[in-house]
């Protein structure tokens, strides 16, 4: 087996573990999830998981980072779009909401990690890792923050406190991780319509002008 093939197989194995773990964390919570449980869900041995992750905390951090990596990748094509910032925001927001739907187990784990951090429910060993992950998430939020401030300067958004507004905006855009469930016969078009409706709610919360909200 060549080194390249071996590396690809290891990457696939790691991705499978992260996916199984994300679902376990979403369904059972952090405290009720175990390496044994993830291995059982994956149909693998604990040794396969320990080959990639030292502990449950390390696995949780891996899922958190993977979820945020997915978010950064989703909005990357739109961050440098020319033209008005409000149009750029809408493209980014739509990509973000679709990501909340498509990768819900990962995004619920990110939310869980934020909650654990805010409650101080982490060990001293975990705190430095969580602090780094929270900074990574904050940097992502600041990308949107800069865009909505620019859109306000251009006269397309109308809000006062940018920090509160950014938080409320993300509460709306992130909301599918709490209420979305696939429906029988649902198509990709249905998901995109749903995402567009969520984005429109956030747009209105930003004071977006109605005549621009479909650009």
What fraction of residues sit in β-strands? Answer: under 5%
Reading the helices and strands in chain order gives HHHHHHHHHH
Helix count equals: 10
The helix content, as a percent range, equals over 70%
Mean pLDDT: 89
- Strand elements, count: 0
Query: Main beta sheet: strand number and arrangement?
Result: none
Based on CA atoms alone, the radius of gyration comes out at 19 Å
Uncertain runs are 1-9
N-to-C span: 51 Å
Counting helices, strands and paired strands, the structural category is: mainly alpha
| Shape by Cα distribution | globular
Describe this structure in words.
It is a single chain. The chain has 215 residues and is mainly α. The protein is 73% helix and 0% strand. Helix 5 runs antiparallel to helix 7. The longest helix has 30 residues, at 124-153. Mean pLDDT is 89; it is low at 1-9.
Break the fold down into its secondary structure elements and pairings.
Elements: H1 3-28, H2 35-42, H3 46-50, H4 56-75, H5 85-102, H6 104-119, H7 124-153, H8 162-174, H9 176-179, H10 188-205
Helix pairs in contact: 1-2, 1-4, 1-6, 4-5, 4-6, 4-7, 5-7, 5-10, 7-8, 8-10
